[in-house]
Amino acid sequence: MTSELDIFVGNTTLIDEDMYRLWLDGYLVTNAVALRVRSGILEQMGSTAAVLQSDTMDRYRTFHMLERLLHAPPKLLHQLIFQILPSRQALLIERYYAFDEAFVREVLGKKLSKGTKKDLDDISTITGITLKSCRRQFDNFKRVFKVVEEMRGSLVDNIQQHFLLSDQLARDYAAIVFFANNRFETGKKKLQYLSFGDFAFSAELMIQNWTLGAVDSQMDDMHMDLDKEFLQDLKELKLLVADKDLLDLHKSLVCTALWGKLGVFSEMKANFKNLSRGLVNVATKLTHNKDVRDLFRRAVLPKSVFSVCPLPRWLPTPGPLGPLHGHPPWLPPAPLS
Amino acid sequence: MPGKLKVKIVAGRHLPVMDRASDLTDAFVEVKFGNTTFKTDVYLKSLNPQWNSEWFKFEVDDEDLQDEPLQITVLDHDTYSANDAIGKVYIDIDPLLYSEAATVISGWFPIYDTIHGIRGEINVVVKVDLFNDLNRFRQSSCGVKFFCTTSIPKCYRAVIIHGFVEELVVNEDPEYQWIDRIRTPRASNEARQRLISLMSGELQRKIGLKVLEMRGNAVVGYLQCFDLEGESGLVVRAIGTACTLDKLSSPAAFLPACNSPSKEMKESPLVHPPSHGCRSTHNSPIHTATGSRLTQNFSVSVPTLIYTGMGSGSAGKEGGPFKALLRQQTQSALEQREFPFFTLTAFPPGFLVHVGGVVSARSVKLLDRIHNPDEPETRDAWWAEIRQEIKSHAKALGCHAVVGYSESTSICEEVCILSASGTAAVLNPRFLQDGTVEGCLEQRLEENLPTRCGFCHIPYDELNMPFPAHLTYCYNCRKQKVPDVLFTTIDLPTDATVIGKGCLIQARLCRLKKKAQAEANATAISNLLPFMEYEVHTQLMNKLKLKGMNALFGLRIQITVGENMLMGLASATGVYLAALPTPGGIQIAGKTPNDGSYEQHISHMQKKINDTIAKNKELYEINPPEISEEIIGSPIPEPRQRSRLLRSQSESSDEVTELDLSHGKKDAFVLEIDDTDAMEDVHSLLTDVPPPSGFYSCNTEIMPGINNWTSEIQMFTSVRVIRLSSLNLTNQALNKNFNDLCENLLKSLYFKLRSMIPCCLCHVNFTVSLPEDELIQVTVTAVAITFDKNQALQTTKTHVEKSLQRASTDNEELLQFPLELCSDSLPSHPLPPAKAVTVEKASPVGDGNFRNRSAPPCANSTVGVVKMTPLSFIPGAKITKYLGIINMFFIRETTSLREEGGVSGFLHAFIAEVFAMVRAHVAALGGNAVVSYIMKQCVFMENPNKNQAQCLINVSGDAVVFVRESDLEVVSTQQPTANCQSSCTEGEVTT
């Protein structure tokens, strides 16, 4: 006796959160059944493994049918086929677009192309995340990227509007898209200690201050691409190191701004010249794409600069980071000699 | 020219990409009604076209309005080749034809294609202007309301219940016409869908005419079925109960239908011919085989078991002349009718006086081609024959009417089993006649007698019983005689005193049959039927005893015929009626008393059975008060416990051979184990596991003993198909497989719905079909309702009182309020009209929860929740308006089965789509729920080798508007601020 067909269709589509997680994590039906058996659910309900198998298959089938809609979340809201409560719809979407820290660190800044997709096997092996889950996450990144790539307006808003993600998740996606677009190198050994959160934070500030959109909200692609002009202008910062007076002025302004706001203030003050030189060196070389991609590696690289006060420690205190984060309003306009 | 139909095509969304080059679609719409077609402009290059068309106007007869569906076809315009069809929407405009129902149909409808399923949605507005037609000889029956609900709809009052109406229409099945060889599957499916839609429209109109003839204005308990007879044609038939209904202006409508028969009525006079519980007949002439008579004498001396008879017995001997008069009245009222049948399963107070027992009849027929579709006489004659038989059985039980009546068929190739069953009953005449009725209802209510046992009292004469049966005095009133077991097809009357809770009881049975052709096949089937019937009955009886209960409600026995087997599945809800005696236990006796180890085995079994009974009594809280024998009085003469099935094995004559099922003269309820078969039977008794704790199940409307329902409901359909390995096809193996299939299915349901505990599966409806040689398909539709455990023990009485109280405190304005709400919200919600308000109301998570839990990004969902339930009510809510009947038929076919996820993926998607289309239609009518929902047919065929599958589904129900009781209460306390509140509600929903 074999079951040829076995289905359950409810008027309201039931979503079991645990099952959804198992499915998202890419477990095969057999593995999922085994996991559930171990969870002791059978004893609770006095059920059999066959029941569990049937239930799992059925839920997986439902998720599979929903997946098509999850690719365009607004569709999920307007479709008529599955009657799902709004709270559950939100959960479905949010969980589907959630990603693993380990995974995102592997692909952050990489081109979201077929080539990268081929490497997912390796990423799966390294991270221990199932290939299926890796594919879903990668495809999510790529899908969001494709949709917002050519769009005007705020990156976060666009993502939120087209994918109905929560604010936090939309910000994370904005960072992922931004990194993928600018292909910032994040995989180098030197950068391994940085978390996705660190990068996402930098991305947010860069989007706010360095992109075309930051300057002129009428521009196309504004929040994806860095403002080339601005990067060119950064060359002028050489003066800050070369000119002693300007160096001192810069130092005093930065120290005033950061006074009481930095745990490593005295070290910073003592090493200001080295720090400033390092930063300016990074800043003045951001004219070529290759250098831009290398931004993070180079920003962290100069041991002399960051041994005292590595970049990430600064990051959690936004605002007073000075020249790195936009046109410093207090900086005198570059002399146009 | 009595009607003008107006249609406007507003917009489309989520259309499929039809042009690969541009990834877009150039869509336009054809609107067709009858022979008139209109077209919209082509909306170029969009997946979300905005046609915003003019009003297309069709000037039509109301006859056509009733018969024809509105057909909307969405196409992709192609300059160089033929336009490609995207899909269709059929809209039944019947709900617009009666004054009290919907006034406009407006909303998003899924665009459906029989090959691709749902492909986007289309927004349509439909209106009808009806002109008054004074022509007496008209062919239309606009204005007659139809209800699937098998009780008097909640916001109506029954003035007169006229009785049985039936009709059938036949046609050739397009699938079997010669043209089908040259047309595409899509064209063929659409031809079928359209034909069935037309036929059901016609059928409904014809039934409506009959109702008008009877001076009724509504059909309640309307059940329409399709018989796909294959080569020989397509039959659409319907039965229902004609009524004159009054729209209730006061909320007394919400009085629960309770049965409080008056004193004089329960003392039924002696006039009645005696008879007895479960009669079953089986009429098996082969339609075309005139030569072969199939009269067998089934004096089955089945040695394995004896079971108690279901009553028969006394009637009040003191029946005065007045009562006799009353009786006469009733009979004359009913005798005017050809068939005194009622498809209702729940009744207005005072309607049902006595219940006799289940009557059923079956007949095996050979199908032949329907030569002339306009004269469906053969089929008519078949059914008339069966109904006659039912009528005579009811008579034999001393009853003049049959309630809870239903008809069904099972078809395999050219053999067809027609079945009918119902419950023989004695009814109060006053509801059945004009004139006398007005005072009747009120009078009944005033009398409000505390007796709740009347319906259990036997309607027949104990002194004149043709066979001995076990009768006792009623345990409730001690005056009348009651049987020891009662089987019925109706719902438990709400005022019946029940001890403990009820449970779902199923008897399952398979019988192998040799493959044969035509007459030989029909003969084989007719020979098997009585045995099956007998065994199903035995199983039911044993299981009922095992549960420690004494009555079955909602009994439904389904016999399914396949190529090489017959399946029997009986479902019912067992309860312990306080008025009936405590059931005895089950005793096991061995045949070979000398064998020591065997004895031991027997006693072990006996112990197991006793333990099970004790456990069940505890589980279902059955602890009737102890009553000593003296009070009850000694049993009636001839206290032998017997039961019998009356059976007619006749061709054209009315020759009745009786099957005595009460083998031998043994006093106790004994199971004799004399062979392995019997052993199997006992084992199978014990294999049924009770549902996990926190779960209950029943196949009636509500679970006896539970009445504290919360508003959380979940309707579902589950389908399973198993393939039998052809090697071990023995009856036992088959039985075991079938039993396991059903048990596992139930277990799966319990597991899947565990988040709803404490919960009860209500209206569990199993359907068995045998699509192929080795395939068994079981389809289950039911609703899971969560109840409040803390108050679950509340008695029925207080519940009734509560609702009475509420009913009396409510007033008219309350009922109208929600309607105002809807119209208020219209302007701001042009697309899903009148739905904005219901969105929240319908949310199963309670209002507060809904708002808190919905995450901001998703709150702008435009799709309102539409509830679906097989029950006639929605717990915790009041139905304020019936919008019309939903009756839909869909075909889905695929030639890429694997790509669609195999058979499971295919059917899962299709059923989800059917639900979606039902919900969309209800929402477009302005409703927020479907009650009395039923999936009448789910025919699934597959051909995995060709990667193909096809499925036909037929569903029906009543579209309604409901309002939460909690909302109503809020309103009643804040009546003056009602308008303000309505705007508030609206605002909250739209944010």
From TrEMBL, chain A:
Q: Which InterPro entries match?
A: FIBP
Signal peptide extent: none
Query: A Gene Ontology MF term for this entry?
Result: fibroblast growth factor binding
Pfam families per the UniProt record, alphabetical = FIBP (PF05427)
May I have one GO cellular component term? nucleus
Domain of life assignment: Eukaryota
Q: Which GO terms describe its biological process?
A: platelet aggregation
The name under which this protein is listed is Acidic fibroblast growth factor intracellular-binding protein
Say which species the protein is native to.
Aotus nancymaae
